[in-house]
Amino acid sequence: MKLKILAIIFFSTVTGYTQSLNELYKKSVEAYKNKNYEAFEKLNLEALELHPSQPTILFNLAASYALNSKNKQSFELLSTLLSWNAKLKFEDEDFKNLLEEEKFTNDLKKKASFFSTQKESSSVFFEVPGKYHIEDIVVIEDIAYLTDVRNGLVITYNLKTKKSKEFLSLAGSAFAIIKGVDKNSIWVSSSMFPNYSKYDKEQNNKSFVYKINTKNGNVIAKIEIPEEAVIGSMVLAKNNKIYATNSVSPKIFVIDTYKAILENSFEIEEAFNLQGITLDNTHEYVFIADYIKGIMKLSLADFSNRKWYESKEYLLKGIDGLSYINDKTLIAIQNNSNPKKVVKLSIDSNKVTKVEILDNALPYKGEPTNGKFYKEMGYLYISNSQWPFYDKKNTPLIEQWEPQRIRIFNTL
């Protein structure tokens, strides 16, 4: 087998952790080369305790199972990997024992076909011109407010007149957006991000959260985040506090909206890269997507009271947007998978009991990001944000930019 090369992107400075993971990986490679397949398996299992969804390690573990004649375990793990990467290749000598069993070979082919097949359950709700790079959305009455990464804009789209316009401009990429306590205000996060047209390296990841008047676009409050941050998702709870996730380091920011101050910055030590956050109907808990680890439920009364959801059959990796539908249902946007998809997750206790693919492999080259659920309207989301269309220097490849399409699921 050509061993999978370990390639990990770290979103925070965790040097000791990185060294430990790399050391385990190197030892596992040596064990493989020496044909010590029992040690190869053991070392990959140890590595997964540090990084529970690292695809290279998962793949190598599946190979170790096959080499140790644990075909059923190898099959189950490859099936899980196919749920995240339907283009996974595993036809090599190390999987010979597994692939000699026709039932496993046929089932793996069926799973690869299932997870790669295009599925379209939503429809286009509206679109805005391709000159924008849309990241998030909120709807208040007949107006949709959208954030723009490239030029730090908040854009409005009138659902009745079907016209869009630039509402205001912020000093930095505009990311998360939510409704205020009433229809007269919105909250927007911004960050000095490399994709921003006026990026200032000295101000890298400098972030603010703004309260904006929806009538005239005036800034009511401006809250500085006193550390490097990119706030990609926020919620406003009944206690009038905003809970926001930081993707630079695994922290949750708590903002007192009455005092317009950052009240707390809390680190989730076992997390990696926090993304979408969504409130339950009681506003006592939030669900948070970790781009690496999966989904966590967190008590707002006690941040130490948290649990991670498990799924042996589906890899909960690369989830960006996350929306609560009811106590048994979440909608997740998985944009680090191949292909990219929107999935419906049925949850119970600390397990994901069922995964239903809603949209999969849509004919867009852009990347789905965030969405919102409205009981009277349905679930709508940004389906093709412009993230893939920048070069290595973060210069936009404008000729490749697509009209930004907001899609909707009327029923779930």
How would you explain this protein's 3D organization?
The protein starts with 14 loop residues before the first helix and ends with a strand. Helix 1 runs antiparallel to helix 2, helix 2 runs antiparallel to helix 3 and helix 4 packs parallel to helix 6. The chain has 412 residues and is of the alpha+beta class. A hairpin with a 3-residue loop joins strand 16 and strand 17. It contains six helices and 25 strands. The N terminus is likely disordered. The protein is globular. The longest helix is centred in the N-terminal third of the chain and has 19 residues. The chain has two domains: 102 residues, Tetratricopeptide repeat domain (Serine Threonine Protein Phosphatase 5, Tetratricopeptide repeat); 289 residues, 7 Propeller (Methylamine Dehydrogenase, Chain H), CATH 2.130.10. The relative contact order is 0.11. A five-stranded antiparallel sheet has the order 1-22-21-20-19, with no helix packed on it. A four-stranded antiparallel sheet has the order 2-25-24-23, with no helix packed on it. The protein has a four-stranded antiparallel sheet with strand order 3-4-5-6, with no helix packed on it.
